[in-house]
Amino acid sequence: MKHLSFTTLALSCALPFLFAAAPLHAADAERPGAAWQPTLQSGAATLQLNGAGVRRQGASGLYTAGLYLDQKLATPDAVLANAGAKQLRVVMLRDVSADQMGDLLARGMLANASDEELLRLAPLLFRLGEILGGQKQLAAGDSFQIDWQPGAGTAIRINGQLRGEPFSEPEAFGVMLRLWLGPQPADGALKNALLGQQT
């Protein structure tokens, strides 16, 4: 069990602001059962859909997520070790408060990162909060994406628009991605889906 009050504070302050998203007008393509785009362009790289699924909370879907890579990969270690561009995209399926979502993500990050990583990344998390500002309510269709580009770092985009400067910390993307692909993911079925292991 971790006892990092400073890091926990950084997470709780910063993570809700990841979701300061404008409505996604193309949300129809992101609904459960609907197809995600098979490929997309991320910088100079053409990425392919590795897998997509729905994060469930109770009986209903909270959001849908899709993982795009430069090649198909089936394990978390392979995804994290891959040197190519990556994108994790999330689209909300129902309204939820940003505080609730931030709490879910903070607990997920604490569960899947080492104490050392979290201490090093605490300033980064505070900077996320400063860049993205506050958002009290997340509506169905709100979206965000986390992009990693070789040599460019980790960028947060809201509806395709870059928010702040990319983060140069090498651990940043991996720590974020382990929320979904780590040993203690928020949703095991979604983890399998992102890895292309649909059941």
Task: Describe the protein in words.
There is one protein chain. The model is unreliable at 3-7 and 17-34 (pLDDT under 50). The chain has one domain (5-22, 49-194): 3-Layer(bba) Sandwich (Chalcone isomerase), CATH 3.50.70. The protein has helices spanning 5-14, 76-81, 98-112, 115-132, 172-181, 188-194, and strands spanning 39-42, 45-57, 60-69, 86-92, 96-97, 137-138, 143-149, 153-158, 161-162. 33% of the residues lie in helices and 27% in strands. The radius of gyration is 15 Å and the shape is globular. The protein has 199 residues and is an alpha+beta fold.
Please report the distance between the alpha carbons of the first and last residues. Answer: 32 Å
What is the string of helix and strand elements? HEEEHEEHHEEEEHH
CATH level 1 name: Alpha Beta
Query: DSSP strand (E) fraction?
Result: 25-35%
- Approximate shape: globular
Averaging pLDDT over every residue, what do you get? 78
Tell me the CATH topology: Chalcone isomerase
| Number of helices, counting only DSSP H or I runs of 4 residues or more | 6
Q: What's the architecture, going by CATH?
A: 3-Layer(bba) Sandwich
Number of strands: 9
Rg? 15 Å
* Integer tally of domains: 1
| Low-pLDDT residue intervals, each spanning 5 or more residues | 3-7, 17-34
Strand order of the largest sheet: 1-2-3-4-7-8-9
Quickly give the structural class.
Answer: alpha+beta
